[in-house]
Structure formats: structure tokens, C-alpha cells
Design brief:
By secondary structure, the chain is α+β, with helices and mostly antiparallel strands. Among the domains are: about 90 residues, Rossmann fold (3-Layer(aba) Sandwich); about 70 residues, 2-Layer Sandwich (Dna Ligase, domain 1), CATH 3.30.1490. The protein contains 17 helices and 23 strands. An eight-stranded antiparallel sheet has the order 14-13-10-11-12-15-22-20, sandwiched between helices. It is globular and about 65 Å long.
Length: about 500
Amino acid sequence: MTILLIANRGEVVVRVAKTARELGWKIATIYEPDDRQSPHIRVGDIAVEVDSYTSIDSVVEAALRVGADIVHPGYGFLSENPEFAKKLLDLGISWAGPSPEKMRLLGDKIEARRLAEQAGVPVLPWCEALDVGDALRCAEDIGYPVVVKASNTGGGRGQRIARNGEELVKAFQLVALEARGWGKPRIFVEKFVENARHVEVQILADRYGSVVHLYERECSVQRRRQKIVEEAPSPLTARRKKLRSELLDYALKLSEYAGYDGIGTLEFIYDPKSDQFYFIEANTRLQVEHGVTEMVTGVDIVKHQLLTGLEKPLSLRQSEITVRGWAVEARVYAEKVLSDFAPAEGVVTKLRMPSGPWLRVDSIVEEGYHVNPKYDTLLAKIIAWGSDRLEAVKRLEIALKETVIGGVETNLDLLRELLASEEFVKADYHTLFLEKTLDRIRRKISEKLQILKEIVSRINMPQLLHMKTPNVRLQGIRWRTYGWLAASTRSRY
């Protein structure tokens, strides 16, 4: 029996475990000492303590202890670390990802840009900056506004917009400081596109030269340069077939030129002025938002990632892949929306997740779950499918209204307001859409909170506390077990 070690925590462990169970594999999980109560541990057949989720030596030792045949890195932590992948491969343990060489080639934003230029794929004007002086000269050549980026960061970190020289100096210093957590930073300056759309293409490739795409996703709704709402297909390209064809051709062209050999995502910026897509970076791992693509294509991306990691050939041809309907995802975070999205901490005291035939909920949260801001505070990904965009958005709106998470602050109100906004309904948004409408949305949230406070203040609380609660047992209808977790835990217990 194949033994899989999932080198991560949280909902991605549950997601990967579901596919591994379907393949008939045995599953091992890992945990840090501070994370020994996390529900993701229960998904596996065995759990091993490691010093840290980012300790290569400790995680490799765990893989050896359980006799792992293959390691899936999830996302974050060591998922894009070529040294980690190489160490496993050198020990005869398969890696559910591209080869270390391809990770180095495409994982570095500067090298990936150079490769795209060689492949004939459009990129925005840019140049590497060794110091502030270089950055200033580069910005003068390119023309403001620009964005200062680190080549080795992820998750929206290590990038700042600058609209003049004074802002550029500050941006360079902040990016350099922020990027140190990823090792020695390399910094570059790139032309900033106003009212840009962020669209990415999902790629599947194997070790034998086969490459296919699973069409595109739109990820333009972001806060602090991090995605919070994604949809597939993109509203921009779905109604413009020629533009979509150009985008998909660019993605295949770059993947084939690079000799890419795993699943990956190629990210592009759309400039409405030039009506052109430009390549910005590649992700050599599973994306958080992969679920929306799975919902519209019916393709299990994780399955292909695991099997190509074992050097199996792709079992899909491009002609077999089609898009059916529309899917929209909302990421539910524990965060303080009214306090600049600071991470929130607490214990989940009440939980009700939505359910329905058109919904998918990826989460590990349960009542009693401790949200630790030491880790990513993603609580759930709620995905709705519809026959068209309007239906998918409406179903997601209803799902978010049904969702209840008590005991910790979340961004649920923000997501509800976003989906109901005229801009989102009309798909007339861009990467700074939330930033420009945030004050309006925050005012609405504050007004709602004030109304709730007034209602609570008028309630006779002592009398309320002595009232008998209705005989409704939410546990009886298994609100705690849903989505991928339901499938995984049923097979285990």
C-alpha cells in the first residue's frame, strides 16, 4: 500500500487526504508541539510530531519514520522549497510537485520573467534593482506608478506600490525587510497597471512532456494583495473568446518552453488600456483556490498531482477538458475587518456551515477549535456552483448568510457586502476594487453592529438566560462534519 505523508496543517490536509483515500493509500500527518490539538491530525492513520512545519530535516525525518512513499507539501510552509523536494528525492521518496530544477526556474519571479521573455510571452516593463539607486533609475525609465517586488516571497507579501520617488524609497526598504523571511531577497521594479485584472491559468503537466490547461480563474478581489474571492471561469475572458485563447496559449507556451513537469499556476495581469495580458509569476504548488477549477471542470487536480509525483503519465487530453457552469469561492478568515484585517484569535463557540447540492465547503473548523494567529487564519473556503455566474453568485450569497461562526471575529460580513455590491454583481472590478470601496463597506458593517448592540441592550438578559432553549439538536444533523472532512472522516471511522 502506498503511504502518503502530508507535510502541512489545516484544511489542505483534509483536501489531499480525501483523494488519497479514494486511491486506497495510507495517510500520515504531522504537527508542531503547539498544534497537537488541530483537527487535521485525525484525518490520517498516523500523526508524527515535528519541530516545525518549516524544518526540512524534521519533516524529512518524519517521512522516513512512517515509511512514506510520497510527500505532498500542501501550500505554504515548504511547498515551494526546492531543497526540501531534492532531499526527499535523494532519499528515494517521491515528491508531489514539479522537479526541484523547475521549482527554481519558475519559482523565482525574476528568473520566471526572463524565461517568459525568451518564450515570447508578454511581460510588463521591469528591471532588477540591487539598491535604492537602481530602483529610482528603473522607475524613471519605466514611468510611475510602479510596484516594487521581492522575487522570493508569496501570499501577497513583499510588494509595494510607489507613485513617486519618495514613495519608492520607502517601498524598497519595506519590501527588502519583508522579504528577509524568505532568505536573501532579490528585488525588482515593475510597471504598475491601474484597474488591472488578476487572472491565472491552471496547468497540469507530467514527466513525459504532456501539458494541458484547465482554463482560467479570476482572482482580482483582494485585500492586502491577498485573494479573498475567486471565480472560474473569469468574467473577463468568458465573454471574449479571442482574449481567452491568447491567455491560454501564453500559459501553454511558457509551460512547454520551460519543460514544466507538475501541476502549477501561471498568473497574469490584464491591462485594460492595452487590452493585453502580461505574465507576472508562476506558482509551482497547489493553489488555495484550486477548488473553483475542480467545480467547473470535474477534474481532481490533487489526484493528478499525486499520480504525476509517482511518475505516472497524464491521463487527460486537452480535448477532454471543458468548462461547465460557473463557480465562485469566498475565503472565510478569522480577522478584524475594522482593524486593518489584523488576525483574530479565539475559540469557536458556535458553528453552522452551509449545505446544499451546489456547495462545497473546505474546512477543519469545529466547535471548540482554537484559532491561533501564529498560523494562517483561514477558517473555511465556501464554493458555490451554478449554471451561470448569476446563479453561482446568488447561491454563494445564500450560503454566506447561512454561515455562523461564533467566538471569534471573521470577515463574513465583508464577504456578504462584497458579493452584494454593484461592482461585483456586474463583474466590473479590479485588483484595487476592495481597497477603493472598503470605507463604504466598513461603514455598512459598523452600522449593522451598532443596530445589533442596541437590540442586545434592550433585551432582558437575566430573563433570557433562564429561558429554555428549543429542542433543536444541530449536532444531530452533523453540522460539524461537512465538505471534504465529511468524506475523509467517514472512510476512517
